[in-house]
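> example.struct
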């Protein structure tokens, strides 16, 4: 249709409204683009412009880049937020280019080769803090008229500005983005456990009747597992894992474009069933969030702890229509957890939550387990960090997790159990793998020694969680400062000495 529009345009421009504040213009010559953009900027009505033109010797990717560079200052002074180009040629796939205000109208590599409307629906701009590589893309099965049921892209992302505050903790993820045009591709999912129960019930009924529903339910179970967009996304993630993509904090995003015929309650139920039925796989594949955009809001399933996910509803901004900012890179705390996870262990501060969960599960009177909120009830678990002060004495020092400057951490804990209703205290000592690669120095030994002395003095049991890499082997910093090394380049000791 666009090729026909180009031919019909002759020397004239054809304007097509494609959304609120967005229009597409079919032009026949790249030289018309500067005047077109100047006119749009002067009118101040549109915020997004898509330009469609025929690819030729004078209309190439390089020529478009030069034209946009020449207009960049004027575009920055306008109200435009996004300019995209579709270069069409007979017998060849379209070439898509995009220029965004957030990049000072330089090319947005995230959207190269992606249809502008699809890039907007997939919210690719939210990946702006990462360098992104497209691993695969697939339109799913199509209808008779040729419209895909859904589009799916699998993207490998590595943080753009690498944060070296925690060694070995570069943020790498896989983002799976899907745009669904048929609601049943999402809603037809049924939790395996629920279908299995129905199969069992129907099987019991079949023994006394000639019902054929057993076979139909078996087909339903198979179809639910093979045709759901959520299951398809999970299988794609598993495929990339087999190819060696070692990533954490992977994210799944679904935009339901068939929102008019989809009830939000059904979307929430489907998402809840999916995370319930596939929680072990999701945790194994390091999926931390699953986001489903529907209408003016979105449902987000967060991985909380263990194999549990929590589903929440978020509302999009009424003015911008955007419900989320760009995905943030990992915080310092998250990087520390990542270091421990990659070493096959658990971050030392996370053991507190594990102990609390175990105590709550074992205590039938635990308020945290029963969801109670009695302000007068004493919790079943308490823990306070002990820090070595300047006088070499362990003292209580409540502080945020992850702010330790020593690889050995100590907690004084109290818990109430069914066997001891009055509660009991103990000391928990653990090594932090994220601090200096989990190695030990004299300071770590001193903290450990003081913790054991405290246990003996107060008659408390000691629980030690060990995850370390042995002694710290290096030259003492005090000795280093007294050496005058004849470096080849003092600014770069790696070049060696004379």
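> example.seq
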């Amino acid at each position: 249709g666009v090729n026909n529009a180009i031919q019909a345009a002759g020397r004239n421009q054809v304007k097509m409204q494609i959304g609120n504040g967005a229009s597409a213009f079919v032009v026949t010559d790249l030289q018309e683009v500067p005047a077109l953009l100047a006119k749009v900027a002067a009118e101040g009505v549109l915020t997004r412009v898509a330009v469609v033109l025929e690819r030729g010797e004078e209309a190439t990717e390089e020529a478009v880049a030069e034209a946009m560079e020449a207009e960049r200052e004027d575009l920055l002074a306008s109200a435009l937020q996004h300019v995209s180009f579709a270069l069409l040629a007979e017998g060849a796939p379209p070439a898509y280019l995009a220029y965004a205000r957030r990049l000072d109208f330089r090319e947005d590599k995230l959207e190269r080769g992606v249809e502008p409307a699809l890039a907007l629906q997939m919210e690719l701009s939210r990946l702006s803090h990462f360098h992104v590589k497209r691993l695969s893309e697939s339109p799913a099965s199509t209808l008779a008229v040729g419209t895909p049921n859904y589009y799916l892209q699998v993207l490998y992302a590595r943080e753009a500005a690498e944060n070296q505050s925690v060694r070995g903790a570069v943020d790498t993820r896989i983002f799976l983005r899907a745009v669904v045009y048929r609601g049943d591709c999402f809603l037809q999912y049924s939790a395996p456990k629920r279908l299995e129960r129905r199969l069992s019930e129907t099987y019991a009924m079949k023994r006394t009747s000639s019902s054929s529903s057993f076979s139909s339910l078996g087909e339903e179970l198979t179809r639910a597992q093979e045709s759901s967009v959520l299951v398809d996304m999970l299988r794609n993630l598993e495929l990339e894992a087999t190819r060696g993509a070692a990533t954490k904090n992977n994210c799944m995003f679904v935009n339901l474009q068939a929102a008019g015929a989809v009830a939000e309650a059904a979307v929430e139920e489907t998402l809840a069933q999916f995370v319930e039925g596939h929680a072990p796989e999701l945790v194994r594949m390091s999926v931390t969030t699953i986001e489903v955009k529907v209408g003016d809001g979105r449902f987000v399933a967060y991985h909380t702890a263990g194999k549990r996910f929590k589903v929440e509803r978020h509302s999009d901004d009424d003015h911008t229509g955007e419900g989320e900012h760009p995905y943030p890179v990992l915080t310092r705390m998250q990087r520390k957890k990542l270091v421990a996870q990659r070493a096959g262990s658990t971050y030392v501060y996370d053991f507190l939550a594990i102990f609390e969960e175990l105590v709550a599960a074992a205590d039938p009177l635990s308020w945290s387990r029963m969801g109670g909120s009695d302000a007068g009830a004493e919790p079943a678990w308490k823990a306070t960090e002990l820090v070595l002060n300047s006088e070499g004495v362990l003292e209580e020092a409540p502080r945020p997790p992850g702010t330790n400057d020593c690889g050995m951490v100590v907690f004084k804990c109290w818990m109430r159990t069914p066997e001891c209703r009055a509660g009991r205290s103990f000391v928990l000592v653990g090594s932090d793998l994220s601090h200096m690669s989990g190695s030990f120095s004299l300071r770590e030994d001193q903290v450990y020694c003081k913790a054991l002395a405290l246990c003996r003095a107060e008659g408390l049991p000691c629980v030690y969680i060990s995850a370390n890499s042995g002694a710290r082997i290096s030259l003492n910093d005090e000795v280093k400062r007294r050496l005058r090394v004849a470096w080849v380049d003092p600014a770069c000791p790696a070049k060696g000495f004379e």
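> remarks
The chain has a mean pLDDT of 80.
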